[in-house]
Write a structure and sequence with these properties.
The chain is an alpha+beta fold. It has one domain. Helix content is 44%, strand content 11%. It has nine helices and nine strands. Strands 1-5-9 form a three-stranded antiparallel β-sheet. A three-stranded antiparallel β-sheet has the order 2-3-8, with no helix packed on it. The protein has a three-stranded antiparallel β-sheet with strand order 4-7-6. Strand 2 and strand 3 form a beta hairpin. The longest helix is centred in the C-terminal third of the chain and has 50 residues. The protein is globular and about 75 Å long. The protein starts with 14 loop residues before the first helix and ends with a helix. This is DUF7587 domain-containing protein.
């Protein structure tokens, strides 16, 4: 599902288009997305800001105030999105690009470092903690012409605040990703976002649950491996309280491929892992609630019995 933008329509999006985009934004965008940048990204600090504090796209720089996404005409949206994707500067972009695959971003950061760029960082956003006017979509949802671009997500508006974190790539490289100890060591660099980073790194290589769609005989073992990993990671990293209700964790909600040109099995594994982690936390919370109710019932019963005995003796 996506919308089709017309270059000759000089009106804002229709109500039906807005409804479609809002549904896609709420149900088909991962909560956590990643980005690689360096000090010269987007033309450098005179053109755009990429820092540990904020990401400011071209369209919000140099006294430009930017726009409300839904105030832009359809033709303006189409032109801006296409210029942004093609890396052109004809139209100041109000968009920053992100990805669901942490491994793709790590490879990108390493390449930028090898090319000699300074200040290479890896950034993360929690799309649930961004300012209300920052809207994020999967690129294919915004225009049918982007159907093959499943690697890219577009965030409209300046990024800053508690939903954003950036870490120098050098620090990640120093700690390595060879084992679970280094995985935790890297994840802690992202502070409040340890959990999404640790789980994404855990899915950097093929895991047994990558094959859960195979015949049932093999499926059971794969599911057990997935549940073991979920239990282990839940011990170290608490899940957000609403995670078990998140629609994006449902299989098939987020487009990960395969397409003729792209496939992101690491993202599929990551979403599967987060879904089972959330399920385990929810099950534990339900059991704790039930135990609490049972304990309260027993306490009420104990409170009642002595009172009844005392009343009998008084007679």
């Amino acid at each position: 599902m996506s919308i089709s933008l017309k270059e000759n329509r000089h009106e804002t999006l229709t109500a039906a288009q807005k409804e479609t985009l809002e549904e896609l934004r709420e149900t088909s965008v991962p909560r956590y997305l990643f980005r690689g940048w360096h000090y010269g990204s987007g033309g450098g600090p005179k053109e755009t800001i990429n820092s540990t504090e904020e990401i400011i796209p071209h369209g919000s720089m140099n006294d430009r105030e930017g726009h409300d996404f839904y105030e832009l005409q359809e033709s303006e949206l189409k032109s801006m999105l296409e210029c942004h994707y093609d890396g052109k500067t004809d139209i100041p972009s109000e968009i920053s690009s992100w990805a669901a695959s942490l491994m793709m971003i790590i490879f990108f950061a390493k390449r930028q470092q090898n090319l000699g760029y300074k200040g290479v960082h890896i950034a993360l956003i929690d799309t649930h903690q961004l300012a209300n006017d920052v809207l994020v979509w999967h690129a294919p949802h915004l225009n049918q012409e982007f159907e093959g671009c499943i690697h890219e997500y577009f965030a409209h508006g300046p990024i800053r605040g508690p939903g954003y974190k950036a870490v120098p790539y050098d620090l990640l490289e120093e700690r390595g990703v060879d084992d679970k100890d280094s995985l935790h060591s890297i994840a802690e660099l992202f502070e409040l976002f340890e959990m999404p980073v640790a789980t994404a790194l855990a899915c950097a290589r093929p895991r047994p649950w990558c094959y859960v769609n195979m015949p049932a005989r093999l499926d059971a073992a794969s599911r057990k491996a997935l549940e073991r990993e979920a239990v282990y990671l839940n011990i170290h990293y608490p899940q957000p309280a609403d995670a078990h209700t998140a629609h994006w964790l449902l299989r098939g909600s987020v487009l990960t491929g395969p397409t003729p040109d792209q496939d992101f099995p690491d993202v599929r594994q990551w979403i599967d892992l987060l879904r089972v982690m959330a399920k385990k936390v929810h099950e534990r919370e339900v059991k704790a609630t039930m135990r609490g109710k049972k304990r309260k019932e027993m306490e009420d019963e104990e409170d009642w019995r002595p009172a009844r005995r005392r009343k009998t003796r008084a007679k």
